[in-house]
Amino acid sequence: MVKYVIKRLILVLFTAFIILSLTFFLYKSLPLDIPLAGGKDAAATFLHNQYILGYVIRFNEPQSNYGELLGGRGFEIGNTGSFYYYYSKPIIEQYFSWLKNIFTKWDWGVSSNLYPNQSAMGIILKKLPVTIELNLISIIISLPLGIIIGIIAALNKNKPIDHIINTLIMIVIALPSFITILYLIIIFGYNLHWLPVRFADETAPLAEHLKSLVIPVFALSIGTVAGFARFVRAELCEVMSSDYLLLARTKGLTRRQSIIHHALRNSMVPVVPMVIAEFIGILGGSMVLENLYNIRGVGNIYMNAYGAKDYTLLLANTAFYTLIGLASSVLVDISYGFIDPRIRMGAK
């Protein structure tokens, strides 16, 4: 297991390095968007930060051999009376500066338009708690409900209740979460006025905050409940038809005893890794929901940064989702070995 974990970690780091490197080159190939809307001082500060990070080079006089001048004119730093002319470095030089900043200072650059001159990764970490809150609540609600519904369907296999549950599961899985939240907002927000039509502000009372969690949590949970239920039903049905369970029944165990002590325990082995995978799936799926319900989370940042052409913030956000996704794949693989001794011993 130790060798396997080390190999998986090395592979994940290598994969992350390749993905983020390609993303960096793609974003840096786009024109640098200077925050001119924030005024001359904001633009000068942004270019000064790019100079410190090693992405641009500056001179006291205009240059003819460095391509197009960024911003089209010189920028003054503060009220010093000194004007600088900024030019982009070659992408490969920016790439090595980017790597150096990450490994030495964990600096992913600064936002250009959405949050001018603020740390890109700092913005993401500041917005992360809201996204984590939504995902954790969704998982806590979805896991027991999904398992219970899956068990009910499996114990009533090929009966009317099983057919009804399977039909509802297929409908829910086929329905995108962003469609679900739109209907919830229209029905419970605008028509019935039971719930708020947008997420509560940071200064809102606790009661209002809890009410604003109902719609997004339900929209995120319903699909996950269906996924857990379908998975548990399939696993439990397979275990209940296995030879060793038949042997347990022939030895005198009742149906209830054989299900509780043997079938349920063995069918739950794949569920724990699935929890990790579903958590990451919800994390990615909440991206659109956060934007629709005006939730100030990581997903909302991604959509807004895309619209504002804030490439540095997009790169940092892409890194966040990439690292989270790869880390979850490692946890899923490792959890199989710790949960099921047969897999752990089989590795030898």
The total count of helices amounts to 13
- Give the helix proportion (percent range): over 70%
Terminal Cα span: 8 Å
- The average pLDDT is 83
Return the structural class: mainly alpha
Largest sheet features: 3 strands, antiparallel
- Beta-strand fraction estimate: under 5%
Low-confidence stretches: none
Q: What Rg is obtained from the alpha carbons, in whole angstroms?
A: 26 Å
Estimate the global geometry from the Cα principal axes.
Answer: elongated
Q: Could you give the order of the helices and strands? A: HHEEEHHHHHHHHHHH
How do the strands of the widest beta sheet line up side by side? 1-3-2
Number of strands: 3
What does the model show?
Helix 4 packs antiparallel against helix 5. The protein has a three-stranded antiparallel sheet with strand order 1-3-2, with helices on one face. The chain has helices spanning 2-28, 40-53, 91-105, 120-155, 160-174, 177-191, 206-240, 243-250, 255-267, 271-292, 298-308, 311-339, 341-346; strands spanning 56-59, 75-76, 83-88. It has 13 helices and three strands.
